[in-house]
């Protein structure tokens, strides 16, 4: 069984203006097949026309496109038992 990945580079708070894109990034200790999930508040995010979710090696990123006031709130990234929030 592979050891669990941990978050080695935490999310940073991002301030964006309405209509801009907001980029969130974090880095894991290793590449993992574990489910990694992004959340806005308690809502799990999917990659779609509003959100772009990427994983390149150990770096995971979330781009909220053309943010609105409704996008205000805590963003969190979870992998296994580990969570980072901004």
UniProtKB/TrEMBL annotation:
Record keyword Transferase present: no
Signal peptide: none
This protein's UniProt keywords: Cytoplasm, Disulfide bond, Phosphoprotein
GO cellular component, one term: cytoplasm
The keyword Cytoplasm is annotated on this UniProt entry: yes
Locations listed in the record: Cytoplasm
Main location: cytoplasm
Domain of life from the UniProt record: Eukaryota
Domain Ig-like: 3-86
Pfam (any one): I-set
Annotated PANTHER family: OBSCURIN (PTHR35971:SF4), SI:DKEY-31G6.6 (PTHR35971)
Full protein name: OBSCN protein
């Amino acid at each position: 069984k592979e050891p669990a990945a941990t978050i080695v580079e935490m999310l940073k708070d991002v301030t964006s203006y309405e209509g801009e894109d907001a980029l969130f990034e974090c880095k894991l200790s290793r590449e993992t097949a574990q489910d990694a999930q992004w959340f806005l508040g308690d809502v799990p995010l999917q990659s779609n026309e509003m959100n772009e979710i990427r994983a390149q090696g150990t770096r995971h990123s979330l781009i909220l496109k053309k943010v609105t006031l409704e996008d205000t709130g805590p963003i969190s990234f979870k992998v296994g038992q580990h969570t980072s929030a901004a």
